[in-house]
Amino acid sequence: MSASPATGREWHLVARPHGWPKPEDFALRETEIAEPGEGQILVRNIHLSVDPYMRGRMNDVKSYLPPYGLDRPMDGGAVGEVIASGSDAFAPGDHVLHGLGWREYAVVDAKQAVKVDPQVAPLSTYLGVLGMPGLTAYAGLIEVASFKEGDAVFVSGAAGAVGSEVGQIARLKGASRVIGSAGTDEKVKLLTEEYGFDAAFNYKNGPVAEQLRAAAPDGIDVYFDNVGGEHLEAAIDSLKLHGRITVCGMIAQYNATEPTPAPRNLTSVIGKRLRMQGMLVADHRDLQPQFVQEVGAWIRSGELKYRETVVHGIEHNVDAFLGMLRGENTGKMIVTLDA
User: Fold this and answer.
1) Contact, 179 vs 149, CB < 8 A?
2) Residue 65: what pLDDT?
3) Which terminus of the chain has a smaller tally of CB atoms within 10 A, N or C?
4) pLDDT, tens digit, for every residue of 203-261?
5) What distance in Å separates the CA atoms of residue 50 and residue 42, rounded to the nearest whole number?
6) Long-range contacts: 184-187, Cβ < 8 Å, 24+?
């Protein structure tokens, strides 16, 4: 258990990025740590999450989450240890998952924290394979894409935290074929040799449409989209009648400064009777118990594998975030704070 500190460091957004964020758009600042009030807990953060959706929150535009305020602490998923409590629901020494990351210490409303058990799974997994990315993969495939046994599934960004889990869940639930795309030959090898994908390709090695047709000559039933752009256009070409598309993310377009061209083959949606649906994980919280039970069992049995890319020290939080946007991570990008 840790003593309550007087001060702690936190990251602030100080300028709204135009295109790719730059290190000077952020500032690491020291601030006084308040004692928790009634119904609050003080948490020493151990692991912080950086995720693609955070790029959108840096723009001052209306979206499904409010934009980050300038010269204000940023937030995101975090796991930490309770070091002081004003709530009967938590005691010092408990470990919790909460939403006030990008800082060393956080005063969190107890209602906004969930107790997690390091004996069940490593704490970092509650930010990745058993956390928001994992539930995104599970709900996006099972509920949004209406996956059924025998479907052929294509996943873009397949070596990332969400994509790698989508492909493995599809395989474990009886997909006829699982195909993934990634940005390096090493990641492609990982998809087929470790995660059990039937085929994978490096999208930088040639046109996505050609590589997808070669990997799935009989077409696909489901496309799980983490990338957008050329990948979405290629998937529409390869989808069979009544195919389904889950639009989870479009990381290829997050830093664009000009409007990106839509897929040029959208008319195929009509003839093929395709269903294309965007998803936000917050709409699928009801699946959480089922997800933890099913996926947790696969993790314990070793049937579902996961990777994490770990960066040490809060001073490297922005480096980790920018690296994740560039695809430098394999699996979930985690920032671990040195104790």
Assistant:
1) no
2) 85
3) C
4) 999 999 999 999 999 999 999 999 999 999 999 999 999 999 999 998 878 777 787 77
5) 21
6) 184/327, 186/330, 187/158, 187/159, 187/330
CA angle 228, 135, 169 (to 5 degrees): 80
Question: In angstroms, rounded to a whole number, what is the distance separating the alpha carbons of residues 328 and 305?
Answer: 19
Q: Give the count of alpha carbons within 13 A of 269, CB side only.
A: 12
Q: Buried b vs exposed e over 10-29: b needs ≥16 C-beta within 10 Å?
A: bbbbeeeeeeebeeebbeee
| pTM, full prediction | 0.88
Closest CA to 94 of 111, 80, 78, 77: 80
> Cβ distance 233 to 163 under 8 Å?
no
What are 214-221's contacts with CB under 8 Å, separation 24+? 215/154, 215/179, 216/152, 216/154, 216/177, 216/179, 218/152, 218/177, 219/152, 219/243, 220/152, 220/153, 220/154, 220/177, 220/179, 221/151, 221/152, 221/153
Residue appearing with tokens 């209406």: 146
What size, in residues, is the chain? 339
Residue 72 CA to residue 112 CA, distance in Å, equals 20
Query: Across-strand partners of 105?
Result: 44
> Which two tokens mark 294?
């099913």
CB 314 within 8 A of CB 337: yes
Tell me phi and psi for residue 60, to 5 degrees: -90, 70
CB 224 within 8 A of CB 163: yes
